[in-house]
Amino acid sequence: MSQPQLEMECSLCEGLPDVAVPAGYLIRTYRHGDGAAWCRLVNEAIGGEWTEAGLQEEMDSAQDFRAADLFFAVDGEEVAGTTWALRRESFPSGVGSVHMLAVAPEHRRRGLGRLLVVFALRRLREQGRARARLRTDDVRLPAIKIYLGLGVRPLLTHESHLARWRKVYRKLGLDPEEVQK
Length: 181
Description:
Blueprint: E1 6-11, E2 26-29, H1 35-45, H2 52-61, E3 70-75, E4 78-86, E5 95-103, H3 112-126, E6 131-136, H4 141-149, E7 153-155, H5 161-171
Parallel strand pairs: 5-6
Antiparallel strand pairs: 1-6, 1-7, 2-3, 3-4, 4-5
């Protein structure tokens, strides 16, 4: 039986850290024609079978999608990482989501994931969102470590979440009792 993804949430009213773009990289937003690169990156870094048509459907289902919501870390012309400041009409009022954080394996450990998340959180705050939520998988430990380091905390929305979060905390060398705090 498949279990639902883990969920996390944070307040956007609190300060977000200043982050520096690593030398050689640039952060930019979505441009027409980025679909193929986005799909390659997400399929490689997260997994799945994203297509440009699937990405377009995701954009169409987002609430008031704007190119400024979808961020890319680039090294020259190469897309090195991405994330999305996503809004959906189904979200509670004042809530947005950090969606599809992915960094290419050869560009990891350079701070791009943290940088992209901060850009997405700032964008959500600019849009008037008070809170950010996200979903993630138990095995995405580097991403979870980034989220926790930025003040994003576990949400226990499914009966399986407490035990799974405690296991994740142990793997990260954190106190599993902190999950409920």
